[in-house]
Amino acid sequence: MKIKEQFAGDLEKQFGEYLDRNSIFHLIEVPKQPEHGDLAFPCYTLAGKMHRNPALIAQKAANELENNDYERVEAVGAYLNVFLNKQQTANDILKKIIQEKQNYGNSQGGLGEVVAIDMSSPNIAKPFSLGHLRSTVIGHSLALIAEKCGYKTVRINHLGDWGTQFGKLIAAYKKWGSEEKVKQNTIKELLALYIRFHEEVEHSPELEEEGRFWFKQLEEGDADALALWKWFRAASLQEFDEIYKLLGVSFDSTNGEAFFNDKMQRIVDILTEKELLTESEGAMVVDLSEDNLPPCLIKKSDGATLYATRDLAAAVYRKETYQFAKSIYVVGNEQNLHFQQLKAVLRKMDYSWWEDIRHVSFGMILKEGKKMSTRKGKVVLLEDILQEAIELAKTNIEEKNPGLADKQSVAETVGVGAVIFHDLKNHRHNDIDFSLEDMLRVEGETGPYVQYTFARACSLLRKGGYQPAAEELIGCDQEAWPVVKRLDAFPTVIHRAAELDDSSEIAKYVVDLAQAFNKYYAGTRILEEGKWKGQRLALTFAVSVVLKEGLRLLGIHAPEEM
Question: Which of the four, 22, 336, 361, 437, has the lowest number of CB atoms within 10 Å?
Fold first, then answer.
């Protein structure tokens, strides 16, 4: 936020002996009431360090603070309030956006270093459920934000393509499956078999033994079991790719759990060499009592390796392959303990980069307040939801703008964007109750509302014949000032979203900017000829640039007409 940085710099000249610039910057507030100024600095922290009355500190600073960017400076109690030179400030901000366009808010803080992002990671042979949406869209957005901040990213889809569930599925297919049916509708038919297995096992417990038998066959490379597993995996990826295409998501790696089968023994060997493995009830574990964590299970009593072993192998492989500066795992809240253990074991293995691993956790998407379960068939299929959202968006377009060109494409953009935005506007730690109707409203805090505001701005620019020219003196009228201040905040919001691994910062920001612009639009004749027309269109152009870029950072497209 340029104006806030300027204010912090001016205060540092006076108080740098007591507070550094960064501390001053974070103490600066934006008053809720415009009559209290554009920015305010509370002097309480200085009072403690200077041993003086905070009101006297504020008054002295007000007398000494001189800058052309300020219309006036005043002390109100312990607060130093500044009113900015609106014309000059607006001119600087709007010119910057017009010059930089979609690059506005870019930074080079990442210095080209690599961020590896483990995201999405659905299980093969199961439908891509609504429950997988969160990891996919949060991870995709964080990758876009990291790139905006100067990092290179590696998007990793760590597929769930190994484990005892595949033994159960093979057993179910052998007992009740039909090759013809599975070929016609692979994923849904495999889901039905998986659900049936868990229903039948309640009455026939011996089925569990069959499931274990077939997984053992798979581990030992049995040709029949391996052929079925490869078929299930290929069919799953084909269906997943259709969904990823709709979401606009792609990956640099789809190495799943099976990829690390031959890389786990190295981990066991290192742990053995470093004398970190201890026996517990026949299993091999790493003791983590000094970290106040339960032991990390590395090998079961039958010698089989586990999820933790595989993730340790994956972490080492990714560091050696990508040389990441940060490795982010976008995985649900329920895996918090697992990642605490993972980092603790890597630290014990003397890998200094254990601190560069971050678990970006998130809550669940609930259906009628309850968790969804594949085993019990209580699952909402993401493909169905996306198609339903697109159809609803198309119906809305037919009602409100039947003459719109390329309605199908716009409906896809709006429908899919609504689903993504509904997820990302919530802080990732929170559970979300699924509601398609809420997602698609064109008013309120929704994706379509922000997209519609962008389309409105594009329409005004077309009608006004606006051609951006940064060399003109732009300025702004009084009514535009709240919009200008929000435009100025965009780079700061991006930085905060990156620091917190929280895309909701950007989602809330674009809603706030859209609301400010719509309020301005309601009270201002933007296309009215006269002194302010050029400035109003310049402001509209700046809003369109920032809304489009903000939506892009969420993984959402912005149609120019709706």
Answer: 437
Looking at residue 549, what is its pLDDT?
98
In angstroms, how far is CA 320 from the centroid of its own chain?
Answer: 26
Q: Minimal CA–CA distance to 312: which of 361, 336, 347?
A: 347
pLDDT in tens, 441-494: 778 899 999 999 999 999 999 999 999 886 666 778 788 999 999 999 999 999
Contacts 24+ apart (CB under 8 A), 226-230: 228/170, 228/173, 229/161, 229/166, 229/170
- Least Cα distance to 549 among 148, 111, 21, 51 occurs for 148
Structure tokens at 185: 């509708």
Q: What is the pLDDT of residues 207-253, one digit of tens each?
A: 999 999 999 999 899 999 999 999 999 888 988 999 999 999 999 99
508/411 Cα distance (integer angstroms): 23
Instruction: Write the DSSP string, 252-316.
Output: SB---GGGGGGGHHHHHHHHHHTT-EEEETTEEEE--GGGT-PPEEEE-TTS-B-HHHHHHHHHH
Q: Which two tokens stand for residue 220?
A: 């030992």
What value does the CA radius of gyration of the chain take, rounded to a whole number of Å?
28
Mean pLDDT, rounded, of the chain: 92
- Report the amino acid identity of residue 213: F
**How far from each other are the two terminal CA atoms of the chain, in whole angstroms?**
32
At residue 365, φ and ψ (nearest 5 deg) are -95, 125
Q: Which two tokens stand for residue 10?
A: 């001016």
| pLDDT more than 70, % of the chain | 96
The whole-number pLDDT of residue 476 equals 80
